[in-house]
Design goal:
6-stranded parallel sheet; globular; 10-stranded mixed sheet; mainly beta
Length: 208
């Protein structure tokens, strides 16, 4: 089994793409990027150079992934999402006479999307931050700070409003949980159990 690449896609030299991955029409993948197995890269998506993408990642249409982004396995990135890597970008030098180079430098900040996370449609993701394991970013959100594991965040800037299970169902709303003591939450869909303590969420081991 090998990767399936649409004839209109541009895949530059030095790109590695795992078995079972599909790259759809008018995608552009820059050099030195690596994409794992069984991924989907949706139409008209741009992936910059040096990006690292794990196995079984779904990237919908019109997504922009810039240099210094790492995406772990099992992540969902919905249509129209834009990543960034510079908090204070400028096109030119101070005298406006020369374009600044596009190569990474000390102002280029990395972004890490941890395994199992979901990013909703039309989100903007800031740089120098992490989106935690199985976290969920609601559609249209602007993420400006790190999102903890299993947190549900929405808005501009994005704020935690609840907690989510690995299966994607909402475990509970922040307003309904006493943050001063440990609280056990059980998913009504799949039955997995979690503990919320001071805003942190931990998956509990299954009882045999």
């Amino acid at each position: 089994m090998s990767a399936r690449i649409h004839p209109t896609a541009i895949v530059e030299d030095g790109v590695t793409i795992g078995d079972g991955t599909s790259v759809w029409d008018n995608v552009h993948i820059r050099h030195s990027t690596s994409i794992g197995e069984d991924c989907i890269v949706g139409e008209k998506t741009y992936v910059a150079y040096g990006v690292k993408i794990g196995d079984r990642v779904k990237i919908n249409a019109f997504v922009y992934i810039c240099t210094a982004v790492t995406i772990e396995r099992g992540v969902m990135i919905s249509a129209g999402t834009v990543f960034t890597n510079d908090r204070f970008p400028r096109a030119t030098t101070n005298d406006l006479l020369r374009l600044r180079p596009s190569d990474p430098d000390e102002t280029t900040l990395p972004t890490l999307v941890r395994e199992g996370a979901t990013i909703g449609a039309n989100c903007t993701i800031g740089c120098g931050l992490e989106i935690g394991r199985f976290a969920m970013v609601g559609m249209g959100s602007v993420v400006t700070r790190t999102v903890p594991d299993f947190h549900l965040v929405v808005g501009s800037p994005a704020r935690t409003i609840g907690y989510v299970c690995k299966c994607g169902q909402v475990l509970g709303r922040v307003a309904a949980i006493d943050r001063t003591q440990a609280t056990r939450l059980t998913c009504g869909e799949c039955g997995e159990a979690f503990e919320v303590r001071e805003g942190g969420v931990t998956a509990l081991a299954a009882v045999s």
